[in-house]
Design goal:
The chain is an all-alpha fold. It has one domain. Helix 1 crosses helix 3 and helix 2 crosses helix 3. The radius of gyration is 17 Å and the shape is flat. The protein starts with 7 loop residues before the first helix and ends with a helix.
């Protein structure tokens, strides 16, 4: 069995990357865990748990990198990740649709 070569620069790079992107990574993990547990609590099957958790995690990751564009600090990304996990994909989609329809109507 091959061992992974010991490369300190690789570990340093990964450590720095994780330090800079930790709020987004944490938000994605939190959203996935909350969504998965929510589906299990509601009696969903394994397929639904895996799909909902991964979709919510990816959605939270995307939102966590976009909240800085609207002036919200990136340190608040875990809050949005938790909310996305709690609402689920359909709830988040409905909330986003209402938000953007309201913004378009005011233009």
């Amino acid at each position: 069995m091959k061992r992974m070569p010991d490369r300190p620069e690789t570990w340093a790079f990964l450590s720095v990357w994780l330090e800079h992107n930790w709020p987004g990574v944490y938000a994605a993990i939190l959203a996935g865990m909350i969504a998965g547990l929510r589906v299990v609590y509601g009696g969903g099957n394994l397929r639904r748990v895996l799909l909902e958790a991964s979709l919510c995690g990816l959605l939270a990751l995307a939102v966590s990198h976009g909240i800085g564009l609207v002036g919200i600090p990136s340190e608040s990304a875990p809050f949005f990740g938790g909310a996305i996990g709690l609402l689920g994909v359909e709830g988040t989609r409905a909330a986003a649709r209402r938000f953007f329809n309201r913004k378009v109507d005011t233009l």
